[in-house]
Specification:
250 residues, 2 domains, 7 helices, alpha+beta
Length: 250
C-alpha cells in the first residue's frame, strides 16, 4: 500500500483515542515501528486526552434527571442497521476520513466522559473527586517528563505484542511508561513495572492497560525497565518471566 508519510503522521490523535478501525490500526501499528515522531505524539496525546477527561467531572444539577426523563418520550428511535459491503480502506483514505486536530479529539473524549462520570459522582461524589484529583496529579507529573528539555525516549515491544515507550528526564529524575495494545490480564493478575538496579528488580508501579504512567522510584542508577504479570496487589519481586526488559535511554 502506498501513502504519503506526512498523511500517516496525522493519524496519531485518532490512534491514541482508539478511533481507528481494526485494519487501520494494524496499518498504523506498522507505521509506528519506523516512526519515532509518531510514537512520541501518541504518548503525549494519550496523556493529554486522559487529563482532559479527568478534569470534566462535576455534580449534576437536581433538575437534570427530571428534565432527561421528561425528554425521553420525544426522542426518536434510530432506524435498524442494514448490513452493507464495506469498501476496501487504505491508510490514505483513513487520513482523509478520520484525521482530526488533537483539540477536537480530546474534546470528544472529555464530552463522553462527562455523562458517565456525572452519574457515578452522584452516588460516590467524595470518592470520585479524590480519584479525579489523584489522576490529574499523575497526569501532570507524566506531562512534565514528556515535555522536559532533556527528555530521552526508547521504544520496545512486549512478548505479548504491546508497543511500549519509555521517556526519561535526568533533570527531573523521573521516567514515564506508555503502553499501546496491551492485552487485558487474566483474572487475579495485574501488570507490574520494575526498575532494574544492577540486577536487583525494584517495584516501579502498575499499568492497567493502554495509557501513560509515571514510574515510581528513581531511574537515576537503573539500567532497564521491566514488565511482568503478577498477582493483583503486586509482588516484592517478579514471580513470572518478564514480558519486557528494556534498557533505559542513556
Amino acid at each position: 500500500m502506498k501513502h504519503q508519510a506526512s498523511d500517516a503522521h496525522t493519524l496519531a490523535a485518532a490512534y491514541a483515542l482508539n478511533a481507528l478501525d481494526p485494519s487501520e490500526r494494524k496499518d498504523f501499528d506498522a507505521h509506528l515501528l519506523d516512526c519515532e515522531a509518531c510514537r512520541r505524539e501518541v504518548a503525549e496525546f494519550q496523556a493529554t486526552a486522559a487529563r482532559l477527561s479527568a478534569a470534566v467531572a462535576r455534580e449534576p444539577s437536581a433538575a437534570s434527571k427530571p428534565a432527561i426523563m421528561a425528554a425521553i418520550d420525544g426522542v426518536r428511535q434510530l432506524p435498524p442497521r442494514v448490513a452493507t459491503t464495506a469498501p476496501t480502506t487504505t491508510l490514505g483514505a483513513a487520513v482523509r476520513r478520520r484525521a482530526m486536530p488533537l483539540a477536537l479529539a480530546a474534546s470528544v473524549t472529555a464530552a463522553a466522559s462527562l455523562g458517565g462520570l456525572a452519574v457515578w459522582q452522584r452516588q460516590h461524589s467524595d470518592d470520585l473527586q479524590q480519584r479525579a484529583e489523584q489522576a490529574e496529579q499523575r497526569l501532570d507529573d507524566a506531562s512534565l517528563v514528556l515535555a522536559a528539555p532533556d527528555a530521552r525516549t526508547v521504544h520496545g515491544r512486549t512478548t505479548n505484542g504491546a508497543l511500549t515507550t519509555v521517556v526519561t528526564s535526568e533533570q527531573l529524575n523521573k521516567a514515564v511508561f506508555t503502553a499501546s495494545r496491551l492485552p487485558a490480564p487474566a483474572a487475579g493478575k495485574t501488570y507490574q513495572l520494575w526498575l532494574d538496579h544492577d540486577g536487583s528488580m525494584r517495584p516501579a508501579g502498575f499499568v492497567t492497560g493502554d495509557g501513560t504512567v509515571q514510574l515510581s522510584g528513581s531511574p537515576a542508577d537503573a539500567h532497564a525497565v521491566g514488565l511482568s504479570l503478577e498477582p493483583v496487589g503486586g509482588s516484592p519481586q517478579p514471580t513470572t518471566n518478564p514480558l519486557l526488559l528494556m534498557a533505559l535511554p542513556s
